[in-house]
Amino acid sequence: MENFSQASFIDNNVSNDEMVEQSTFNHPIMMPSTMDQDLTPHYFDINNRCMSPSSIKTQPCAVQPSTLFDDNTHGKGEFSVNKTKAMNDKQEDEEEEEEQQQQQQQDNDDDDDDEYEDIDDDDDDDDNDSTWILYKDDDGEDQDNQLTYHHTESQELKDLDWKDLPNFIHNMDYDHLNSHERKRARFENQTLLSIRRKTIAANAIVRLPYKGSSVYICSQNSFQQKVDNYMARMGAYKLIHQLNGVNQNASKKCLIDIVERVEIKLHNLLRSKSIAKRQYLAMTIDRSSLILNYLYFVPETHKEDMPVRPITICNDGPTMNIVRYITPLLWSIFDQATNCRRFQNGAIDVIHAIEKYAQMGHLKPGTLFVTFNMDDLTTSFLHDQTMSALKRLLIEQLQDKTIDGLTIDIILQLVHLVLQNQFCVYNNGLYQQIHGGASGLPLTMLLTYVNLFYGQHSELMKTIEEKNEFFGRYREQAILTWHGSKDEFRTLIKKSIHLEHTRHLVTMSIGSTVHFHDVEISQNKNNNVLESKVYYDPNIDTLPNVSDEPMENKSKQFYAVLYRAVRCCSDLDKFHDERRHIQISFLTSGSTPEFIHSGIELFFLELGLSRCSFSYLLNEDEYRHLRQCIIQDTELQMELKKQRELQNQHTLFLPCPKWIDQKQLADYKKRLKGWWKKYYGNEPQTKHIQIKWVESTSKNLTNADILVNKRPPIRLLTLPKNEKNKNNHDTHSYHQQ
Questions:
Q1: Measured distance CA(737)–CA(733) in Å, rounded
Q2: Are strands 701-702 and 118-119 parallel, antiparallel or unpaired?
Q3: Are 308 and 227 in contact (CB under 8 A)?
Q4: Starting from the edge strand earliest in sequence, which strands make up the sheet with 477-482, in order?
Q5: How far apart are the C-alpha atoms of 435 and 420, rounded to whole Å?
Q6: Which intervals carry biased composition (Basic and acidic residues) (predicted)?
Q7: Contacts from 243-247 at CB under 8 Å and sequence distance 24+?
Q8: Is the pTM of this model over 0.85?
């Protein structure tokens, strides 16, 4: 969450123990995100979001940049305990020298390796490098298993309840800072706690919106009413128990039951040889880190009346390992059956693919574009209908009736097991999701596509395959071309089954111009040329970005949006408009003119333009050269991505141990490498396997983690100690049989 404090209505002069008069939040308040530099404090726009003057009873304030935010993380508002700017300034030279010595020693140790290779690639993660990488290394995780930033959790909060955060902050160690730095750090920490206390006292909640980077504040009662309305309208969540009285341990019992069902199912499949041991190990449950799914809601501030959207956190849920294993397999079947292209980077990928489609002569005059948005369908599709569509997909596409050794029946059993065990905790209640899929399960999006395009619109899929239409997907949005009239397409759509259920759950748009994620695509009616440019939803107030998640490094973000602008803007005029929009947006967000000028200069220099191009608008030849360089770079990065995917098939990904210094880490890697070479280095099946060390992907503690109360108490989500300890013993006993 960015720049909450710039628009804060909190009076910083209030002491820790003093409570302000409760404000009346009759209407939600939208506040801009945090900026990197100090600005004059913003007063609330009284006319914005129907907010009345009476709803504000405290004064705005300006909060100074925190010494606990380093240069690379302040823009995102990350709250860092162990890494501070003051420490970086003081220790930078010593750490750099020490790292160089350690790297030299490690390089010497690795010189004698022949068959075995230890991959330790950290170049892509260098926050001090302003160069943006189009396709980051996925560290072995399939792209279709990756989740949005709403579903990520801070490592510090794994075993810490939200109510315990004040003590966590109060007990921070400031000894490494001088007196001035300690004073500033304590002041800023207390400011966050002050904001937190006053929202609690005002019976208000703080949320990050589903899209955009503003901050949403609303009365607790008003927000809960929105949630109640959503649950009643969608009918997807069934209340099982209120977690109080005799049912206060119902969520724990539910988790135990789910674990037993999953373990028994996997044990039986292994015993009957329906799955291999490697598959069993990939899908089995680790009881020690198990957490029951939990649900919270975020506002969709870009929509009328600001409805809410459910977010289910399933990262350590009991069926997550099953989902991570089978989802990539099912996507491969769906994509092959429908000729669907997957876009990893939204606008850049879709433009690249459609331009290739046009260059092959497939984009005819009068071609229409169709987009589908399935946000609401993901949490509402009917399970029986979806399972029927999935079964038909598997029967029609699997010639030998298996994939990766799994039969159609086993795949269906595993998917059914996941859907039938979608239990979660919300607002001190235990719920079961009886329609749709949990938003935090990667399987949910796959089932949504199967439901819509292989179930309801199967005739459409047959037609677009016969007509060689373009079809692609990015998260909950799909796009296709249509060489025909709008009436013909609508007639084909109306043939769909179960249309009434999804009429209001899927948004469809058709025309010669459409918006798909962050790009506008059209075909010029005069010359039938494909045109495109970057698109911004006017209802989403956010700094230009290539990702829904704010980037930690502002220089990389600036480089990335310039890269996207060139790749997506089909002509010079569109690029000039987008460049001006980027410059103005970064200026108003607090970036200096010097930062913007140097960023553009670096971008142009890397792509081969001369310095004389920086001071005036590019001409047609310069922009043509610039765009060709970007296209070639995109193709190169796509090829490198394919090579990494092939390499990953022969790579063993191991997590880097935490909380040890560099010397201990180097020694640990060396000893494990020796162990691997001794026992597996000469085996035919394993001697070519490489090891890659994976750093933790857990995000740091952010302002939002401190201000947004979204997770229930950890006691409601975890197994009792005696159940956790069963894990290794029972599994070991089973394998001895």
A1: 7
A2: unpaired
A3: yes
A4: 341-342, 471-474, 477-482, 368-373, 507-511
A5: 10
A6: 721-737
A7: 243/425, 243/428, 243/429, 243/430, 243/716, 244/428, 247/430
A8: no
List, in sequence order, every residue forming a beta bridge with 471; answer none if it has no partner.
480
**Residue 452, C-beta contacts closer than 8 angstroms, at least 6 positions apart:** 372, 374, 377, 381, 502, 506
| Distance from C-alpha of 94 to C-alpha of 102, rounded to nearest angstrom | 12
Rounded to 5 degrees, φ, ψ at 309 are -130, 135
How far apart CA 140 and CA 649 sit, in angstroms, is 9
* DSSP annotation of 41: P
- Rg of the chain over all Cα atoms, to the nearest angstrom: 27
d(CA 336, CA 332): 6
From residue 164, give the alpha-carbon distance in Å to each of 29, 186, 388, 695: 27, 18, 47, 27
Name 116's Cβ contacts closer than 8 Å, sequence gap at least 6.
673, 676, 677, 681, 687, 690, 691
**Which residue do the tokens 């724990």 mark?**
252
Contacts of 239 (CB under 8 A, 6+ apart): 429, 430, 431
Name the token pair of 724: 């956790």
Q: What is residue 388's three-state secondary structure?
A: helix
Find the DSSP H helices in 400-498.
Answer: 408-419, 442-449, 458-466, 486-493
The answer to whether the CB of 494 falls within 8 A of the CB of 479 is: no
pLDDT in tens, 489-532: 998 888 765 556 666 788 999 999 999 989 999 998 888 899 99
Nearest to 626 by CA among 687, 709, 563, 668: 563
CA count, 13 A, side-chain hemisphere, 425? 26
Strand partners, 237: 433
Helices (H), 127-213: 165-170, 179-201
CB atoms within 10 A of CB 92: 10
Write the pLDDT tens digit of every residue in 114-172: 444 455 444 444 444 555 666 665 544 556 666 777 888 877 778 889 999 999 888 87
Of the CA atoms within 13 Å of residue 634, those in its CB half-sphere come to 24
CB distance 219 to 204 below 8 Å: yes
Question: What is the residue-wise DSSP string for 341-358?
Answer: EE-SSTHHHHHHHHHHHH
Encoded amino acid at 50, one letter: C
